[in-house]
Specification:
The chain has a 5-stranded parallel sheet with strand order 3-2-1-4-5, with helices on both faces. The radius of gyration is 16 Å and the shape is globular. It is of the alpha/beta class and 143 residues long. Helix 2 (39-46) links the parallel strand 2 (31-36) and strand 3. Helix 3 packs parallel to helix 4. The longest helix has 28 residues, at 101-128. It contains 4 helices and 5 strands; from the N terminus they run βαβαβαβαβ. The mean pLDDT is 96. It has a single domain (7-137), classed as NAD(P)-binding Rossmann-like Domain (Rossmann fold, 3-Layer(aba) Sandwich). Bound molecules: NADP nicotinamide-adenine-dinucleotide phosphate. NADP nicotinamide-adenine-dinucleotide phosphate is lined by residues 11-18, 35-38, 41, 57-60, 85-88, 111, 138-140, 142. NADP nicotinamide-adenine-dinucleotide phosphate binds next to helix 1 and strand 2.
């Protein structure tokens, strides 16, 4: 897998591991499309970085996935790398009645597992049209 001159989509690239990946990839002359739910976080994380496109996006929302895939197909047909980095782990006490354990688990499964399957399948036609492409899933035991 070549590490420069790629067009990369990173889901969840405004903090932590994702933001560091964005910095490393832009330094290696890749164009990086960075997503995150929070607009302020997107703006402040990417200020000072060049060769990036920021898109406010929530991977857990089906309609937003459709809109993103359509935009990528139109504006970035050379997309050849997808990094699924968004993740969620909720720490709470199961005996605490103020916490909805089912809702927490549902949220975790949607963000860490189900959404990744959905977006990967929808992006595959774009990725498969190119000679060399890759999907990288950054995950955890939560998924
Ligand atoms: N840190 C660790 O010790 C550790 C250990 C094992 C595995 N991991 C895995 O590594 C990955 C990154 O972890 P991290 O600690 O660096 O995370 P983090 O600092 O919490 O950053 C998560 C990033 O994902 C974005 N994000 C969250 N939910 C999203 C959604 N629904 N749609 C789009 N973007 C979303 C966040 O921005 P917004 O909140 O603005 O959307 C942020 O940019 C995760 O998949 C995590 O499970 C981390």
């Amino acid at each position: 897998m070549k590490t420069s001159q790629n067009t990369v989509l990173i889901i969840g690239g405004t903090a932590g591991i994702g933001l560091e990946i964005v910095k490393q990839l832009t330094a290696l002359n890749n164009h990086v499309i960075v997503t995150g739910r929070n607009k302020e976080r997107l703006d402040s994380a990417l200020s000072g970085l060049s060769n990036v496109t920021s898109i406010q996006f929530d991977v857990s929302k089906a309609e937003e996935v459709d809109q993103l895939v359509e935009r990528i197909g139109k504006d970035f047909p050379n997309l050849n790398m997808v990094i699924n980095n968004a993740g969620r782990a909720i720490v709470y006490n199961l005996a605490d009645n103020n916490q909805d354990a089912f809702a927490n688990a549902e949220d975790e499964m949607l963000t860490n597992y189900l959404s990744i399957i959905r977006i990967n399948q929808k992006l595959l036609p774009i990725l498969k049209a190119l000679p060399e492409s890759a999907i990288v899933n950054v995950s955890s035991v939560v998924a």
